[in-house]
Design brief:
about 300 residues; alpha/beta; seven-stranded mixed beta sheet; six-stranded mixed beta sheet; 6 helices; 13 strands; about 20% helix; globular; disordered N terminus
């Protein structure tokens, strides 16, 4: 992969990374989604910047939540694989397909380039650590349906999901491409996960703490029955709504809180939300709705 020309980046203010000052971060996750290699709106420079930034951050885990390609073609998967190779080679990286990856029988190319998971394209990761949380369980599922924008987890998976989360764990994460909860500013809701209500019930029953998803190209954070649901925007596409910008998320977990920082590849960052794990209060930056205000985030 070619080296990206360095871009001067503003040093983050302590208010944007309060978890750095505390020294209590025990788990860091980089969350990327909606790359869309092959699209007219795809910007490879943005993706390269994001990859270099994630490598510099050295998170405990990287989750790439689908739509790596535009049409599911083999050359698009090769492009995505080449761009993500540094993360795949050097970091614990979990990749699940999105609806665009399942187009044109693209799921066969996904398996060629990113392999099969523990059950089809579903993946389970148990991360043992010497600090709290001592054990982290991630369950990532393929919610795509060939040639459809809509997603579905499927009731046949529910017992399997419960089984994976039944193992004693200090922190439980569920990841998929499609959003489980509607996202503001994305128009009439037509393609959440078809069985979102049942899935949320399974996750609540299983004690899941965090859900990572994408699909709508708009970052947002909800809390549903104590589960923090974190949507990522598109990391490298200019297929955007309103004044939104390409971005990815860095999620940090400490004993007191879960924090989400919006990362703009090559051009800065801003704290999006902090969820107090004890009080279950979400402090969400009002500027997260920046797609509606030209001056909110700025370019």
């Amino acid at each position: 992969m070619s080296t990206v020309t360095a871009v001067a980046r503003r040093e983050p203010h302590p208010d944007e990374r309060p978890w750095l000052a505390s020294g209590t971060v025990v788990l860091t996750i980089a969350q990327l989604s909606d790359i869309h290699c092959g699209s007219l709106y795809f910007d490879p420079g943005l993706l390269n910047h994001a990859v270099e930034e994630v490598l510099a951050l050295q998170p405990d885990m990287v989750v790439v939540a689908g739509d790596l390609t535009q049409e599911g073609y083999a050359n698009e998967f090769q492009m995505a694989r080449d761009a993500l190779r540094p993360l795949l080679d050097e970091l614990l990286t979990v990749v699940v397909p999105g609806n665009h990856d399942a187009k044109n029988v693209g799921y066969v190319h996904f398996e060629d380039h990113f392999g099969k998971g523990d059950a089809g394209n579903d993946v389970v990761v148990d991360l043992a650590r010497g600090v709290t949380p001592e054990r982290v369980t991630l369950v990532a599922v393929d919610s795509s349906k060939p040639d459809l924008a809509e997603g579905e987890v499927g009731r046949f998976r529910y017992p399997w999901i419960r089984e994976q989360f039944a193992t004693p764990s200090d922190f439980r994460i569920f990841a998929l491409h499609h959003h489980l909860v509607p996202v503001p500013g994305t128009g009439r809701e037509r393609n959440t996960v078809w069985d979102a209500g049942d899935v949320l019930a399974v996750l609540e029953e299983s004690g899941v703490d965090l859900v990572l998803c994408g699909h709508k190209h708009v970052p947002h954070i909800w809390v549903v029955d104590g589960i923090m649901v974190v949507n990522s925007g598109t990391v490298s596409s200019f297929r955007l709504r309103g004044y939104a910008r390409p971005s990815y998320n860095v999620v940090t977990i400490d004993p007191e809180a879960i924090s989400v920082t919006l990362m703009y590849p090559g051009s800065g960052e801003k704290l999006a939300a902090r969820y107090d794990r004890t009080t279950r209060v979400l402090d969400r930056n009002p500027e997260l709705a920046g797609m509606f205000s030209k001056s909110t985030w700025g370019w």
